[in-house]
Amino acid sequence: MLSRLAHRIHLVLERHLPEQRLFLKSDVETRFIRLRPATQAMAIVGIGLITGWTILATAVILMDSVSAGTSREQVQIRQEMFEDRLNDLSTDRDMRASEAAAAQERFNLALKQVAEMQSRLLASEDRRRELETGIDVVQNTLRRTIKERDDARAAADSATASLAAQTGGGRSEAGRARDTLATLSILTDALGDTAEQRDAMAGEAEQSEDRVAEVMAEKDALIRRNDEIFAKLEEALTVSVEPLDKMFSAAGLNPDDLLSAVRKGYSGTGGPLSPISFSTKGEPAPAEEIRANAILQGLDRMNMYRIAAFKAPFSMPVNGPVRYTSGFGGRNDPFGRGYRRHEGQDLAGAYGTPILATADGVVTYAGWESGYGRLIKIKHEFGIETRYGHLSQIRVNVGDRVSRGERIGDMGNSGRSTGTHLHYEIRIGGDAINPMTFIKAARNVF
Question: Which tens digit of pLDDT belongs to each residue from 8-36?
Fold first, then answer.
């Protein structure tokens, strides 16, 4: 039955691929090679398989190249976006601080003007009271003068009458009338001058009150504008600082302890982030000063976060396409030595891929170590240490100070390794923690 099936297949193939003969002629004899239909079919299938495998391999290589280029571009775009965001936040912080300082200066100028107008108003009130007191004095003096005049007139009349009795003559009524009119004229002029001074002071007092009302209206408008500026600044500050708080908390770092450590090592002093302080003469500080200082403290906190972000390993150690293989925690030993703890994250990639420092620091070890192969240890701020194992080449020396993103070695397969990859560790206080905690925390912000 098998022979029949083979014969049928041979007949079918012979219809499309008839038997061919390849003649080889020499000086002595002539030979030929018979190419049966089955042989031709196998050759065609083989050539097709080789051609398909070549096309598939070329496509895979092209896809890897495109993927590598896209990943590098994405990493570069993310880095540029992070730098642009930091620059925008710094510019906005400086602008808001300048606006707050200018608003505080305008507010202080308005307060000074109000104080001057109040002083003038009080001086006007004092002058008015002095004028009223002067009028009372003048009136009392006039009353006393009139009384003395009447007494003198009575005495004069008595003397005149006595003289007339003795001499037989007397003063006429027309003379006494003239004296009275002259006296009334003097008194009327004095009272008129006093009334004019009183009216002038009253007018100045009214003008002072109007000016005070205008200044108070300007002060209220300035206060409302300051409230709007402070509200926008507080909202922007909350939106900017809250993700940074979450990032450091997610990485297992206490934000307050972290900022305290940054401030201890920060030598910058003064500048727009210094607290605003005015003399209050023992009185409570104004609400505007309290809000402005709170905003400046928030901006200072954001600035300290920016410094800490470059001192802590919040970046990828590989700038290229990688695969996350063995993660942090327990796993079966690849060399068959049972269940063991894996204290880092493995990232597989191409041999010789650049390995980058994930934060600013100092190289404390660069050499061969059992299990790790070629190993680099970098000491960072806040008691953090990073390790880079199984390298093919080490490009730094012990004592070198490296910056974030600086190339320190190449990916390899040295030590206890089953393939080309990077073994990446992060240790805090000597204890290993999951590196993906830092990597994922940074992705949520940057």
Answer: 777 777 777 777 776 677 777 777 677 77
CATH class name, domain 318-332+339-443: mainly beta
pLDDT band at 272 (very low <50, low <70, confident <90, very high): very low
Q: Which tokens sit at 444?
A: 């949520």
Residues listed for the chain: 446
**Residue 262 near residue 308, CB atoms below 8 Å:** yes
Amino acid identity of residue 97, one-letter, is A
Please tell me the distance from the alpha carbon of residue 436 to that of residue 424, in angstroms, as a whole number.
Answer: 10
**What pairs with residue 393 in β-bridges?**
410
- On whether the CB atoms of residues 305 and 82 are closer than 8 A, the answer is no
Residue 12 φ then ψ, to 5°: -65, -45
DSSP code per residue over 310-368: HHTT-S-SB-S--EE-S-SEEEE-TTS--EEEE-SEEEE--TT-EEE-SSSEEEEEEEE
What 3-state DSSP class applies to 393?
Answer: strand
Residue where the block lists tokens 């925008």: 88
Of 226, 264, 248, 229, nearest in space to 302 by CA: 248
Band of the pLDDT at 305, cuts 50, 70, 90? confident
Domain boundaries, the chain: 2-65, 318-332+339-443
Q: Which two tokens stand for residue 328?
A: 């942090």
Would you say the pTM of this structure is higher than 0.85? Answer: no
